[in-house]
Amino acid sequence: MVIGRxxxxxxxxxxxxxxxxxxxxxxxVDDRKLRQLIGGxxxxxxxxxxxxxxxxERILTFKPYDITLDVYAWLAARWPVTLxxxxxxxxxxxxxxxxxAHAEVTYVxxxxxxxxxxxxxxxxxxxxxxxxxxxxxxxxxxxxDLTCDVAFVxxxxxxxxxxxLCRLAERFDVRVWGQAWDPWAERLRWDGxxxxxxxxxxVCASARIILDIQPSFQVEEGVWGYVSNRVFRVMATGAFLxxxxxxxxxxxxxxxxxxxxYDDEESAVQRIAHWLADDEGRARVAAAGRAFVLEHHTYAxxxxxxxxxxxxxxxxxxxxxxxxxxxxx
Length: 329
Hints:
Helix 2 (31-38) crosses helix 3. The protein is built from 14 helices and eleven strands. The protein is an alpha/beta fold. Helix 6 (114-119) links the parallel strand 5 (105-108) and strand 6 (125-127). The chain is globular, with a radius of gyration of 20 Å. The longest helix has 18 residues, at 279-296. The model has no long low-confidence stretch (mean pLDDT 93).
């Protein structure tokens, strides 16, 4: 049973798709939509009844805000429940930790926050990084209308990040796609549009470098192990990623092998100039990065953990990932 958002490309949606491809029978419930339609209590009771009728082998949950705590506990008392929290929130979200207290395993994408989740009451907290969707993030043809030296895809909510990009734009051809870039639209060549689905791939194919910039609060906190799914999505398209060398990126990727790294603004300028002058090197790293992500950092690669509760095996450390139970022959 999968409980989560049913919009296309949401975590639960992708996991449901991957499970069905492997022959599993899945009951898929959108808890937020239920709350919006009939209210939180009635929606939770509907989930309880659906689970009782379906009798799942395991329940996978992602952002279970809309399941009342008592129903979540009822589910977890009867079937193994996996909770995967992929966001970085400082401090940790107590409502999620309360539900994690009942889960068989609570996976968090910010490994450096494990002790905080444990202190908040979550049970069996383990590190499981975010992932990319290999089906959505596929190589596309370059689009002449989208070309640039450096592109950033994401929201413009972080002023420090926006100003950093504006300073880079004084030296390089920089463009952004996403929401809320109005104050910096002219300097960052923002056309008012976002980049989802197929367009995301075309943006990645059309820029010589895709830049990863972590929000200022994340850089200040220095949380080990956390990267957004955007990192893996970019790499899966076959684009060259210049990644912000946070403790999260360092734990999961290798500089000059899977992506390029930079440390701060001065380093970013130097590394951008270096990689723009090395077409062959960018192509080599981009190809290796894509292969690495498709093998190790997709939702399909996360399924064995979600279905078993096993500790995640970092491919950079070697070791063997667990097999996946219940696969159809």
